[in-house]
Design a protein that fits this description.
Radius of gyration of chain B: 22 Å
Largest sheet of chain B: none
Helix content of chain B: over 70%
Structural class of chain B: mainly alpha
Strand content of chain A: under 5%
Largest sheet of chain A: none
CATH topology of chain A: MetI-like fold
Number of domains of chain A: 1
Number of strands of chain A: 0
Oligomer: heterodimer
CATH superfamily of chain A: MetI-like
Number of helices of chain B: 13
Order of helices and strands of chain A: HHHHHHHHHHHHH
Helix content of chain A: over 70%
Distance between the termini of chain A: 30 Å
CATH architecture of the domain at 62-206 and 240-265 in chain B: Orthogonal Bundle
């Protein structure tokens, strides 16, 4: 019994310490996910409380399927996620390879590369909006010089606007991917590379057959984290384009926000948000199958 | 070759932001000039106007309160949870860690409506606690992952010795583990602070009254009467970003280790 007492106390302590954290996460993360599904089954118009909140079953989802804007929104979101994530992981890998060498001032270079990651997204968005401005933007001047007549309104052209939002996201978050890949690179023993070099392997061969396979798990982790984050893109769109022009950058997270809070259709907007959640869930299950249980295995040691 | 690449990445990372900082020191004439004025005359006109006409200081104050409050709350809850997960026998530990990871991947839009309704029912829209609560929830996973990985690396013998000396578990945590895990706690604090300082989506939904809005909301909604006040936006952006750039250059090593602990080691 003497042994039991402290063990039981320990268990109580463990739950006591965990409880506040778990309670917060359950009340403000897991419950909202369930609650948003409940909301999506009702017709709720924020501006018209007199209508009540009638249960409409899957009515909102039927409207969602017939809504061309929602469909194009889903497509734009997938394009945004795929293109920005691939660019970020590719650029991040290049960055990581450059940062992995030891040279003087490496700490400073790492800090410099991290600056875009630390800048508030709203600030980065205003910055790119200013650089892309149709009259006194830096980009127009860099391309066209003094020929003011050829200046373009980049954010007013559908294709360029989407490219601009993707570019801004790549600028801001590639460093994050680079850090994860770098952490992976640093677990590779230097001797391996040196031995391969002695055996006459060129630098491309060493990268292709030695570094790349060993760093692949880190690449996968970077890919997962960036993908999930890319689904959340909002600030860039809100500040740079407001979803326009002609809905060309109307990603789902922005569309849901607009429906829910700008137009007040809480029920319909919730249906959009459930769709986003299902998409993210589907992608993460797919990744889990591809990457295996690596993410969870690490902590089970 | 590698140095060249590193130099190019530095330039790409810093040049666009440097342009914004330069803009903040221009005059209205210099901002709208074509060709652009590359080097400003060093006017503080825009800072003055951002402070007096756009109320920059009250946005800064609100951001400090919200980001500071979030950091304190998240760490208080996170340290306890991480200690339990790292050291005490918790059934289903991998599941709990996995659930936390899952939370960090939730799209905010799926939480937005319900959280808004909960806060509305509580009368907490447009209050500091109304914004701090969702921030704490969303930063807890990162904090717990980082802290758990730091706590697990400390040798168990330390607490065992402290407990033999008559400290309880809790005493050992506060007197022995926390001081030793100080760097980990600090790392988590920096990352949580940066998150809360930069967050825009929930701040936009929850803070609709100007008096309580944080810096990102203020900067996003800066609007002049007829034109976009680029100069004032640049000045406010510089103020909002300067502390973060300082944090990055001072604590680059910690931030890197924290982010990769959260993502890889976990």
């Amino acid at each position: 019994m003497a042994v039991m007492a402290p063990r039981r106390g320990e268990k109580l302590l463990a739950w006591g310490l965990l409880l506040p954290c778990l309670a917060a996460v359950c009340a403000f993360a897991f419950w909202p996910i369930v609650y948003s599904f409940v909301l999506s089954l009702h017709r709720i118009v924020l501006g018209l409380p007199g209508l009540g909140e009638p249960f409409v079953g899957l009515g909102n989802y039927a409207r969602l399927l017939a809504d061309p804007t929602a469909r194009s929104s889903a497509g734009i979101t997938l394009v945004f996620v795929a293109v920005s994530t691939l660019c970020e992981v590719a650029l991040g890998t290049l960055m990581a390879l450059a940062l992995d060498r030891s040279f003087r001032g490496r700490g400073l270079v790492r800090a410099a590369v991290l600056v875009p990651w630390a800048i508030p997204t709203v600030v980065a968005s205003q910055m790119w909006r200013f650089i892309l401005n149709d009259r006194y933007g830096l980009l127009n001047w860099l391309i066209f010089g003094d020929q003011v007549g050829s200046y373009r309104a980049w954010l007013a052209e559908p294709g360029w606007a989407l490219a601009a939002v993707i570019g801004a996201d790549v600028w801001k978050t590639s460093a994050f991917a680079a850090l994860i890949v770098l952490a992976g690179l640093q677990t590779i023993p230097r001797e391996l590379n040196e031995a391969a070099a002695l055996d006459g392997a060129g630098s491309w061969q060493r990268f292709r057959h030695l570094t790349l396979p060993l760093v692949l798990p880190a690449l996968a982790v970077a890919l997962v984290f960036r993908t999930m984050d890319a689904f959340r893109v909002f600030d860039l769109v809100y500040v740079m384009t407001q979803g326009g022009p002609a809905n060309a950058t109307n990603v789902l997270q922005f569309y849901g926000y607009k429906k829910m809070f700008a137009e007040g259709f809480m029920g319909y907007g919730s249906a959009v948000s459930v769709m986003v959640f299902v998409m993210v869930l589907a992608v993460s299950l797919l990744y889990l199958r591809l990457v295996g249980r690596r993410l969870l295995r690490g902590d089970a040691r | 070759m590698a140095a060249l690449g590193a130099g190019a990445f530095c330039l790409l990372a810093l040049a666009p932001f440097a342009w914004l900082v330069l803009t903040s020191f221009k005059t209205q004439l210099e901002v709208t000039a074509i060709p652009p004025t590359l080097w400003p005359g060093g006017s503080l006109e825009f800072y003055r106007s951002a402070l007096t006409r756009y109320g920059l200081m009250h946005f800064v104050l609100n951001s400090l309160i919200v980001a500071g409050g979030t950091t304190v709350c998240t760490l208080c809850l996170g340290v306890g949870a991480a200690y339990a997960l790292a050291r005490l026998r918790v059934p289903g530990r991998p599941w709990l860690m996995g659930a936390l990871l899952l939370v960090s991947m939730f799209p905010q839009i799926s939480l937005a409506g319900p959280i808004w309704r909960i806060l509305q029912a509580a009368g907490w829209l447009n209050t500091y606690q109304g914004l701090i609560i969702p921030y704490v929830t969303l930063t807890l996973p990162l904090a717990v992952w980082i802290l758990t990985s730091y706590f697990s690396e400390l040798p168990r013998e330390l607490e065992e010795a402290a407990m033999l000396d008559g400290c309880g578990r809790l005493g050992a945590l506060v007197r022995v583990i926390l001081p030793l895990a100080g760097p980990g706690v600090f790392t988590a604090a920096i990352l949580v602070f940066i998150y809360a300082w930069n967050e825009f989506f929930f701040a936009l939904l929850i803070m609709t009254r100007r008096a309580v809005q944080t810096l990102p909301v203020g900067i996003a909604l800066f609007q002049g009467q007829f034109t976009i006040p680029w100069g004032e936006i640049a000045a406010a952006s510089t103020v909002a970003t300067a502390p973060l750039v300082a944090l990055v250059f001072l604590f680059q090593r910690r931030i890197v280790s924290g982010l990769s602990a959260g993502a890889i080691k976990g």
